[in-house]
Amino acid sequence: MKTVDLIVPCYNESEVLSMFYEEVCSVAQKCSDYGFKFIFINDGSSDSTLEIIGKLAQKDKRVKYISFSRNFGKEAAMLAGMSYSSGDYVGIIDADLQHSPELLIDMIKAVDIEGYDVAAARRVDRQGESKLKSALSRRFYRVISKLSDVEIQDGAQDFRVMTRKVVKAILSMPEYNRFSKGIFTWVGFKTKWFEHENRERAAGNTKWSIAKLFKYAIDGIIGFSTTPLKISFMTGVVFSTLGTLYAVYIIIDTIINGPDVAGYPSIICLIVLMSGLILTSLGIVGEYIAKIYMEVKRRPLFLVDTTNIDKRD
Prior knowledge:
Layout: E1 2-10, H1 17-30, E2 34-42, H2 49-59, E3 63-68, H3 74-84, E4 89-92, H4 103-112, E5 118-123, H5 131-147, E6 156-163, H6 164-171, H7 180-186, E7 191-196, H8 210-224, H9 227-257, H10 264-297, E8 304-307
Parallel strand pairs: 1-2, 1-4, 2-3, 5-7
Antiparallel strand pairs: 3-8, 4-6, 5-6
């Protein structure tokens, strides 16, 4: 019997865990030819998430858990789940039920029977999401696909099922600053996309504010593209050239017509403009240096407090 490990990142999901567990158990029952293991990652929750997972583990030996020492983020949670997984196939699904567990049936069929290495969900609607958030998300996918060497599908989600070789490829990338959507695309492999309509959260509130999503987008662009550095360089070249030509013009004009104190406003505007461009360029370079700084420190991406998984199994 082939095995499927489902990785479930959890951060303050106590209100929805019981409902989620019932749905994935229903899916596992329909896929009786596979042995399932549910790996819950407690990402430093402050509510009763860990307590509920513990109770589920007591009554169901398929339930495994990893509890972090603090909140390390979803990227770390997914990495931890893959690191501790041992199944033939590994799935990632959110606990809030916005990812429909029923879709797992077709995903598992795609990787096991149809010969795909990855079965991934792509969101085709943004019902229940603010117009601003939706517009920014769509713009992000267009921008990162143009700037980076990888093309990320519009609406691509972490919700997916992968073969063991894909998981090994992902784990071979030990980078600290992780952007999983880019990593999933970068490793390649044969992928089947499933269109997925948005579901409302079964309970609780979203953990992703616009500010967090913006930071996540910046991390993704910097992690998978050096284009911002090139843009900064080319902008500097263009304005340096224009500045040189303007300086030549001023020298010639002074020689011919003598010194002129007029033009003070235009000079101030140029100074402000150039100062802004310099600071922006320094900011872009600073972001890359900050990422390098975090990489060379080689801190662990997560610290495990408690777990019921024996990695020797």
